[in-house]
Amino acid sequence: MHQDLKGFIDQIDRHGWLRRIGEPVNPELEITAVADLASKSAGGGPALLFEQPTGFDMPVAVNLFGSLERMCLALNVPSLDALGGEIESLMTTHPPTGILDAMRMLPLVGRLADLVPKTVKDGPCQEVVQEDGTLDQLPILKCWPEDGGRFITFPLVFTKDPESRMRNIGMYRMQVFDGRTTGMHWQRHKGGAQHYRSAERLGTRLEVAVALGAEPELCYAATAPMPEGLDELLLAGFLARRRIELVKCRTVDLEVPAQANIVLEGYVEPGERRREGPFGDHTGFYSLADDFPVFHLTAITMRRAPIYHTTIVGIPPMEDVYLGKASERIFLPLIRKTIPEIVDMHMPAEGIFHNLVLISIDKRYPGHARKIMNACWGLGQLMFSKVVVVVDKDVNVQDVGEVAWVVGTHMDPERDIQFTRGPMDDLENASDLPAYGSKMGIDATRKWPSEGFTREWPTRVVTSEAAGQRALEIWSRIAGGSEQGRPRGDRR
Description:
Blueprint: H1 5-14, E1 18-21, H2 30-39, E2 47-50, E3 60-62, H3 68-74, H4 80-91, H5 99-104, H6 106-113, E4 118-119, E5 128-130, E6 151-152, E7 156-160, E8 167-170, E9 174-178, E10 181-183, H7 191-202, E11 206-212, H8 216-221, H9 232-240, E12 245-248, E13 255-257, E14 262-268, E15 274-276, E16 279-280, E17 286-287, E18 290-292, E19 294-302, E20 308-309, H10 320-338, E21 342-346, E22 357-361, H11 368-376, E23 387-392, H12 400-410, H13 413-416, E24 417-423, E25 436-443, H14 465-479
Helix pairs in contact: 4-10
């Protein structure tokens, strides 16, 4: 188990998944160019540690989460599906019916108690305290040629609602304006933006703390689509199998991860805006410049030998694909609690998370696929889904090619496409209006007579069970155990 980011990097190194770059590489454009090549290599490429970023003595770590193996290592699980199953088992616990049932639940009660974060007196993140420090001492990247400047791309942004004091941890990029100020890219649907709206309504300053290079479980949790009101630290504690330790900030009334490498303390004033962007975003296009709140630095605290942890986004696939895959598998059990007919879900990298959602269902009644579409558009961050494709439970939605084949053979355009309008992600560029546009649902399930389909539905072509087993034995000898050549749709 890794207690901090360095421990995680050491584990990656022991597995042979880390590449150390000892030669000088410029944080302006060059590190991104190398990371882009790595992330588009087979399997997501290696994690990278730039030991001599040009002009700085602080190493830069990137692409740490950029493979399924490293994502599982970060979350302490053998597979992401195993983690989803663990969450599902926690959620399906029934109230005890007697003393024996209550005793069986004691380990679960202890596990849940271990999720609550705890505040400690001091931590490594405050080994060095600089109230007069500047951002110029950090190897912050300029990622792409047309970016508006240098951007902090993996910040864990801590705020508290001015009224309820409820905490939020989000990941919002921060463009460096100068050594003491940055932009704060709070998109309107995010928790930090809601806290800022509350502060503006009250006319009060909103205190902010930004952790860089925290423990990997918390880095992931800050990206997760947590339901409103649930603390991301609880999810991080669940993933880490321990309580996340926090320390009080030095200049603001907030708590931050004790194990972080770097912490930026500061505030955002009500009503203050500054032009931020453009920025080469995870859509693969530059998001347009716009006015956003301004973060003012009051202190920098850090470890004695900190690592600057960052990420690169751009044309997929990149590191964020694997963070998104983790959310897909972890939150599927939660989605099933609301929509139990869902068998599986896939958000392919090419769909940029929200643009394309593939869902297989246990179809039970006429119009069931349309019910699923509408339920998704009303559920948490699935409301941003631009295209939802629904198929039957025997279709493997993790295989985009199989889904494309089924859509092409099961869908009648006039009959099976549904349009609606609603909220869109702030990075949606094709809609007429910002954050509002149209959505499309495709019903690619087999159609029933009760849905008006009066013809006979064709049967899928598959080999016989006996011949198929014999063929697999022969092919195994020919191909040396390779899966290559297995027919699409073979579920054995």
